[in-house]
Amino acid sequence: MSEKDGPPKAEESEHESEEDESEILEESPCGRWLKRNEEVSQRNVPGIDCAYLAMDSEEGMEVVWNEVQFSERKSYKAQEDKIKAVFDNLTSIDHANIVKFHRYWIDSSKKEPQKTRVIFITEYMSSGSLKKFLNKTKEIHKYKSTKSWKRWCRQILSALSYLHGCHPSIVHGNLTCDTIFIQHNGLLKIGSVAPDAIRNHVKTYLEIHKNLHYFAPECTDTQSSGNITPAVDIYSFGICALEMALPKTHLVGDNKRLTTEDIERAITMLDDTQQQNFIRLCISKSPAERPSARELLLHPVLFEVHSLKLLSAHAFVKNQEILPETQLDSYKSKEKNKDLILATTRVPGKDMKEADIGIFDVDKFLEDVRNGIYPLTSFALPKPPKAQTRPQSPSESSGQHEIGQGTGQTPSTQNDPPETRKIIHAQCCYLDREDGAEGHHVRKT
Question: Are the C-beta atoms of residues 372 and 99 closer than 8 Å to each other?
Fold first, then answer.
């Protein structure tokens, strides 16, 4: 009898667990984001006290509800303007290789007026981290270290160049293989951006860090000024690039800093001399000697002359709105003449025919380009929007909920999304100007 009663009880407890996780704990002031009773991994982001799964009621997708708790209101007030400016900047970020930062607001607790919460909503990455992927695929080192390694480096550097190009520059400050996520199609996204304004309010910032070998010497040196610059991210990227190139995870830091000799020993294990020099540049001891993300993209080990196929794909994706809808369909429906000679050689019988070209999945390739897997790193990279100054709203002066999305709007007054459509046809008409003094029309010739 007890064996028969067992399964229903297990199902019942599982059902109760699912109900607990779907329970709504809180909602945003605008009612769009619903915080659920299910915590997600903070992924070692210093300064973030807790993170929950949430539902975007407008888009019908899962997001992450992050909370930063300031135990003393005066601690928040001392850097209030800086925090708002940084988060306004973060909400304006739009890059294929950066986890999307949707919106933030500031909640002053009525029950505990001395405490202040900063809540921000970010994209939920259900895929695993790059670290886990590397551990699973360490046996295919030879393939991974050539094609995939370069592709991953280009994506990460493209994202860092974008962040560092913001005004003021946004320093990630927590770049590790655990905070880089890989999707099933090979797209990398860097997440867990922890702004200085948040990190600085954590007294045990250095003590809670794991994998200290990712952090530049100026970050862990107690004698340094503690000034965080983009060069910090370049050092962290160098360690990530080293881990991505190694056949196994040779760099394992257990809350202790690996020595320079340990890192140099790992670098000498690489067969490619250019790869070694590339990583040594990134982890130079002096921040001034480390190249910028843009300069690293032009390094010989990563630089490439883009193929005409890739350039055409980017042009198609960028201008898809103004191209005929049947443009792609007509290409795919076009019958191929297998006997058509595309190129001739001096060697008889060695002509290249259309039948010699493999099947090309144009839809998948265009989708990969659209998602950011193949950025055009040899040209000028996309520039972030300029930071906008925002006036103080009535809710800010009264100490109520504050919500922002790049311009710090309140729940009751949200700005319209920016116009992204392109004008492909326009008409205008004109009238003669009326002379105010004489009261008659004047035609200009």
Answer: no
**130-297: CATH superfamily:** Transferase(Phosphotransferase) domain 1 (1.10.510.10)
Alpha-carbon distance 115 to 112, whole Å?
6
Query: How far, in Å, CA of 88 to CA of 401, rounded?
Result: 15
> 116 or 291: whose pLDDT is higher?
291
Q: Are 188 and 368 in contact (CB under 8 A)?
A: no
pLDDT tier at 236, thresholds 50, 70, 90:
very high
SS (H, E, C) the chain: CHHHHHHHHHHHHHHHHHHHHHCEEEECCCCCEEEEEEECCCCCCCCCCEEEEEEECCCCEEEEEEEEEECCHHHHHCCHHHHHHHHHHHHCCCCCCECCEEEEEEEECCCCCCCEEEEEEEECCCCCEHHHHHHHCHHHHHHHHHHHHHHHHHHHHHHHHHHHCCCCCCCCCCCCCCCEEECCCCCEEECCCCCHHHHCCCCCCCCCCCCHHHCCHHHHCCCCCCCCCHHHHHHHHHHHHHHHHCCCCCCCCCCCCCCHHHHHHHHCCCCCHHHHHHHHHHCCCCHHHCCCHHHHHCCCCCCCCCCHHHHHHHHHHHCHHHCCCCHHHHHHHCCCCCCCEEECCCCCCCCEEHHHCCCCCHHHHHHHHHHCCCCCCCCCCCCCCCCCCCCCCHHHHHCCCEEECCCCCCCCCCCCCCCCCCCCCCCCCCCCEEECCCCEEECCC
Q: What is the mean pLDDT of the chain?
A: 75
Hey, what CATH class is 19-125 in? alpha beta
Q: Specify the pLDDT at position 203.
A: 40
Contact 244, 177 (CB under 8 A): yes
The whole-number average pLDDT for the span 393-408 is: 50
Paired strand residues for 404: 104
CA atoms of 170 and 179, how far apart (whole Å): 16
User: If you count DSSP H runs as helices and E runs as strands, how many of each does the chain have, helices first?
Assistant: 16, 13
DSSP 393: P
The dihedrals phi and psi of 247, each to the nearest 5 degrees, come to -70, -25
